[in-house]
Amino acid sequence: MKDRLDRPTIFFTNDDVKAVIYTCLRDWILYTTLMPGQKLNERDLAQQFGVSRTPLREVLQLLAIQGLLNIRPRQGIFVAPIETNFVREVFEVRLPLEKAVARLAAERATTKDIKELRVLSDLSEEALKSGSYAEGIRLDAAFHDALSKASNNLVLRQTRESLHNVCLRYWYLILDRYQPDEIDLSAHLRLVEAVEERDSEKAAEIHGLHVSHFLQLLE
After folding, report:
1. Residue 11: phi, psi to the nearest 5?
2. Rounded to whole angstroms, how far apart are CA atoms 101 and 177?
3. Which bin fits 12, alpha (ψ -120 to 50), beta or left (φ > 0)?
4. How far apart are CA 99 and CA 139, in angstroms?
5. What span, in angstroms and rounded, lies between the C-alpha atoms of 93 and 36?
6. What is the tens place of the pLDDT at every residue in 191-211?
């Protein structure tokens, strides 16, 4: 996607071709270039990315583990459907992890981390205020990734991203129902301020409320 907001992968090294494949396929699924139920052709994908099937299959397996693909023996590889109950269950697991991310970020974020969070906060608010909701969602995802990186816990980052991808995909598919309110517009800035103040509990509370707001989209 030309307008895809690049997000660094944490599952493969940055110079690994698998990182490129993972990022592309993940974003094509999340942002509906590949639609739920669509069948993928492994041979065509290998040719498209200019790789053998071995590295491609590693990426496909990871995306299947994340719940973005369904691999059916003797049938093929399909983009996973979006089921509201599954998204709700994922969210119940994700919420406490997001609070943990915010706590650790408040304790461990560097000056560079905080600067990046503030920039993404401003860009996200600007996009939402202008009605560019799709771009706002991508920037929100980038903000979450940056906050997770600031937690300096790789296991937490990987687990959180896998769960967030499921929720992000659902959010993007129901853009026509999304209307940002004051919670959406101010949450990032208030969270950045809490991180900068090194107030871990305040950061966790703000981030928890921000993430919980997602539940309204599941009603």
Report:
1. -100, -20
2. 28
3. beta
4. 19
5. 23
6. 999 999 999 999 999 999 988
Residue type, 80: A
pTM: 0.85
**Residue 42, Cα to own-chain centre: how many angstroms?**
24
Give the DSSP H or E segment for 77. strand 76-79
- 198 is written with which tokens? 């090194």
Write the CB contacts of 181 (distance below 8 Å, at least 6 apart in sequence): none
What tens digit of pLDDT does each residue of 106-125 get? 999 999 999 999 999 999 99
- Residue 138: how many CB atoms within 10 A of its CB? 25
Tokens 């693909």 correspond to: 69
Say which residues have a Cβ less than 8 Å from residue 83's Cβ, sequence separation at least 6: none
- What is the number of H-type helices and E-type strands within the chain? 9, 3
The Cα–Cα gap between 157 and 24 comes to 19
**Taking the CA atoms of the chain, what radius of gyration do you get in angstroms?**
17
